Amino acid sequence: MDDWTKRNPSVAALKFIQSEFLADSPNRQRIEKIKEENAKKARTKVGLYPCTTDIKSIKAPSLNYIENPQNKTRAEYLDQLKKQMKDMAKFGYNEHKDAVERLKLKEDAVTNKNNRIAT
Asked: What span, in angstroms and rounded, lies between the C-alpha atoms of 37 and 27?
């Protein structure tokens, strides 16, 4: 290189760099393929599967026979459901409050008469 090119590298003629896709036989034929490979590498790098998987297909519903079901009859299932609903009622899940009661509770909470806000 002569002196002038060393002093003015931005103005000097740049060497032509041949793109991979202009080569006679490139390693990859499409840009989409490169993107797919990069995505797979990124997924495996963070500990995921290389391709996305459908979670629903892993646990597909079936009509297979169950040896020891939790509830053997419909009546047992309904009894269990009633017990769960009673337990929920004990903890106050069934306490219905109309709009006036909810407004009063919110006003009480704002004025610090009652710290509980019901929604």
From this structure: 13
| Residues 4/10, Cβ–Cβ less than 8 Å | no
28-37, 52-61, 73-82 — which is least confidently predicted?
52-61
d(CA 72, CA 77): 8
Backbone dihedral angles phi then psi of residue 9, each to the nearest 5 degrees: -70, -25
Please give the Cα distance from 27 to 75 (Å, whole number).
67
- Per the CB < 8 A criterion, the answer to whether 20 and 28 are in contact is yes
Residue 65 identity (one-letter amino acid): Y
CA atoms within 13 A on the CB side of 38: 7
Amino acid of residue 9 = P
Q: Model-level pTM?
A: 0.30
**Is residue 71 within 8 Å of 82, Cβ to Cβ?**
no
Q: What type of residue sits at position 106?
A: K
Locate the DSSP E strands across the chain.
none
